[in-house]
Design a protein that fits this description.
By secondary structure, the protein is an alpha+beta fold. It has helices at about 15-45, 50-55, 65-75, 90-105, 115-130, 135-150, 170-200, 210-245, 290, 295-305, 340-345, 375, 380-390; strands spanning about 270, 280, 285, 310-315, 320-325, 330-335, 350-360, 365, 395-400, 405-410, 415-420.
């Protein structure tokens, strides 16, 4: 699996070029390792090894997907794919680091989208590819050299009238529509040629010319499919970067409402009032809403169903509130004026469940922690759910689900409810079944 010398290399320090390069690297990683697994396991298990493994794992196997080729040997010590890789803890540490890189870029958790950030991630993948003796290692090396050349000004984009890569989401969406139409047209041509070839074979006739034509068309189709997927990857990431990141560090602690508090518990102690939507500070003998403004009362009122009257609540200087539930410090939200989470709390009923998801432009809904997709674990419901969500948010994005069965998307600096979901149409076991 060799690529042209310049394929996959960035041309400029722009978000679109950075994302396009990372997409090519992840695609190449999945393809090369997938082909290695396929060659080895076809001999040892048989050509149907993906289905056999899928039966064991209880979900569909995408044998050329970067997530599968990295997570399968990492998560399962008995995986047959381990026979295709080096052994030892040091190697599997590199494998885990590479999976973390894949997840961060695939779930739009990387910022800023520039060559410096890209170089750090490519270095991690390069380290793994070298240890695994992958051809991908050369591509990573070439990318790092190209980044250095662009950074120090020694690289010039070929062509005197080179066009600056576009980073406009609207322009990219127009290009995506063309790419999808091209893919559909080529798919129809490949299908028609395949049918003709099968009819000829059924009649006992060989058609070498048709076979060669089909092979060429298949290559064109594969390239068109990759072009479409690359555009989707770029658009998703750019759209999400415009919306901001719920995990972006700021003056206050980055935390998720309803989840364990990830830092030291604040030292200031106040009390949840039993008759009023407010907190009382025994040190100042005043209600806390006097500090944070009238909108804070609505936020506190939303906490009351989950926090017992007179319970102790811990506040930091930015108005972030923590309380102990079953012995665990749980983040309630923020009272700060203009705080993103304060605004989003008023839009969301209940607490977020522990899972987090990514909606992709192709309709895939992926559990960010496990890599499972809704199509893998609930194939009957997935198409309708995906179509519904993409109607509401065509560029995809990061999703959370609440204890009240609401799906929220992170947009415009806040978690915003976009629709409700029936538990039986979501990931099994993630939401309580309706009585």
């Amino acid at each position: 699996m060799t690529a042209p010398e310049s394929e996959g290399l960035p041309e400029a320090d722009t978000p679109a070029e950075v994302l396009g390069t990372m997409h090519f690297v992840l695609h190449s990683l999945g393809r090369e390792l997938g082909e290695r697994y396929d060659a080895h396991l076809t001999k040892s298990i048989g050509p149907n090894w993906p289905q056999a493994l899928a039966n064991i794992r209880k979900h569909y196997i995408h044998k050329y997907d970067a997530y599968f080729v990295l997570s399968e040997p990492l998560k399962f010590p008995d995986s047959p794919t381990r026979a295709c890789l080096p052994s030892g803890g040091a190697f599997y540490n590199k494998l885990e680091d590479t999976l973390d890189v894949r997840n961060a870029w695939s779930h739009h958790e990387v910022a800023p989208l520039n060559l410096a950030t890209l170089k750090t991630s490519i270095a991690t993948i390069h380290d793994f590819a070298t240890a695994a003796e992958l051809q991908l290692g050369k591509l990573c090396s070439d990318i790092k050299k190209r980044i250095n050349a662009i950074t120090n000004g020694t690289y010039q984009t070929p062509g005197a009238a080179a066009v600056e890569p576009s980073t406009s989401v609207d322009e990219l969406i127009e290009a995506l529509a063309e790419a999808r139409a091209n893919e559909d047209a080529l798919r129809q041509e490949v299908t028609a040629a395949q049918q003709l070839l099968e009819e000829a074979a059924g009649a006992g006739a060989a058609n070498l010319a048709l076979e060669e034509r089909l092979e060429a068309m298949q290559k064109q189709f594969d390239q068109a499919l990759e072009d479409k997927q690359k555009l989707e990857f770029v658009i998703e990431a750019l759209a999400n970067s415009e919306n901001g990141s719920p995990d972006s560090p700021g003056e206050h602690v980055s935390a998720t409402v309803g989840h364990p508090w990830p830092s030291d518990v604040p030292t200031r102690q106040v009390t949840m009032m039993s008759l009023h939507p407010d907190l009382f500070d025994p040190q100042t003998q005043q209600r806390v809403s006097l500090e944070f403004g009238p909108t804070s009362q609505a936020t506190i009122a939303s906490w009351k169903p989950n926090v017992a009257p007179n319970a102790t609540v811990f506040l930091n200087s930015h108005g972030q509130a923590v309380t102990y539930i079953n012995g665990v410090p749980i983040y309630l939200g923020s009272l700060g004026e203009g705080d993103n989470e304060s605004r989003s709390t008023n839009k969301i009923a209940g607490f977020f469940i522990s899972h987090s998801y990514t909606l992709r432009m192709n309709g895939t809904i992926e559990d960010r922690d496990t890599g499972d997709t809704l199509g893998d674990v609930n194939p009957g419901a997935a198409p309708d759910v995906s179509a519904r969500l993409l109607t509401l948010v065509p560029t995809g994005g990061r999703l959370r689900v609440t204890t009240d069965n609401e799906i929220a998307r992170y947009q415009d600096g806040a978690w915003t409810v976009i629709c409700e979901i029936d538990p039986d149409k979501w990931f099994p076991g993630h939401l309580p079944e309706a009585p």
